Amino acid sequence: MLLPIASFAKRCLALVVASVLYASAAQAVTVDLITNGDFETGDLSGWNATSSSYAEDFQINNGRFNPRGPTRRVDPISGNYDVMNEQTGYGISTLTQFFTVPDRVISASFNFTYQLVNHYASGFDDPNQQFRVSLIDDAGAVISQIFSTQPGDAAVQGATPLSYDLTSYLQAGVGSTLGIQFDVETSYYYMNASLDDIAMMVETPATVPLPASVWMMLAGLGLFAALGWSRKARNGVDIANCDGPVAA
Ligand SMILES: [Ca+2]
Ligand SMILES: [Ca+2]
């Protein structure tokens, strides 16, 4: 026995809708909210570098940058470029980038690689001779200090990749502007930090566009349904109740 056309169309439509919903639920996309985190543009595009005194600054390093003080040229951590701070005296160098958090966040992973040399004989001090990384709000206030050097840490630290799960912070700030800020504070003597491969990888639900074939199928089902209804109308069936022929 042939299935009534309207009923067949409804079942197909339900199947297609269920498939699309399943595809949407099953898929997510991961995006990097940081621009030029590897510095391979060869400049500080996307970043804001500031200093508070004595010409501290983060500068692009192509392997030939020789900062003031005892630190010599250092190869970029990866690729052709990274950034390194320099200073001539007491102060704080900052490197900051703001980003907009998506409206929905499944997970967020913050990654960066640093290396540093602290020339102060007494080592690190909290906070006067320190390298630190913070999550900040749009006004620059620290939401969370993600990383900082500690008294007793090695004076010379080679390239060190770090990764932090910031899911809860970004979920709390969906749709808002947040920032990542690196800063080097030197109160006693030279300290140089290099940075590279900075990324804020955020997984967010994907909006899956319908393939053309599905649109054609939906259009076809609409046509079938319309034909079914018009035939029923001609045959005197109840159009308001399209589940099947009206009982005699
Ligand atoms: Ca690089
Ligand atoms: Ca030097």
Description of the structure:
This protein has two domains: 2-25 and 208-241; 31-205, Sandwich (Jelly Rolls). It contains three helices and eleven strands, in the order H-E-E-E-E-E-E-E-E-E-H-E-E-H. It has helices at 5-26, 167-172, 212-234; strands at residues 28-32, 48-51, 57-61, 82-86, 91-100, 107-118, 129-137, 142-148, 156-165, 177-186, 191-205. The strands form two sheets. Strands 1, 3, 4, 6, 9 and 11 form a six-stranded antiparallel beta sheet that branches. A five-stranded antiparallel beta sheet has the order 2-5-10-7-8, with no helix packed on it. Helix 1 runs antiparallel to helix 3. It is elongated, with a radius of gyration of 29 Å. The model is unreliable at 236-248 (pLDDT under 50).
Class by alpha and beta content = alpha+beta
How many H/I helical runs?
A: 3
CATH superfamily of the largest domain: Galactose-binding domain-like
What's the N-to-C terminus distance?
19 Å
- Multimeric organization: single chain
The poorly predicted ranges are 236-248
What is the string of helix and strand elements?
Answer: HEEEEEEEEEHEEH
Number of strands: 11
Strand content: 35-45%
CATH topology-level name of the largest domain: Jelly Rolls
By CATH reckoning, the class of the largest domain would read Mainly Beta
In the CATH hierarchy, the architecture of the largest domain is Sandwich
Radius of gyration: 29 Å
User: What do the pLDDT scores average to?
Assistant: 85
> What is the number of independent domains?
2
- Share in helix: 10-25%
Overall shape: it is elongated
Largest sheet: 6 strands, antiparallel
Which small compounds were modeled alongside the protein? calcium ion
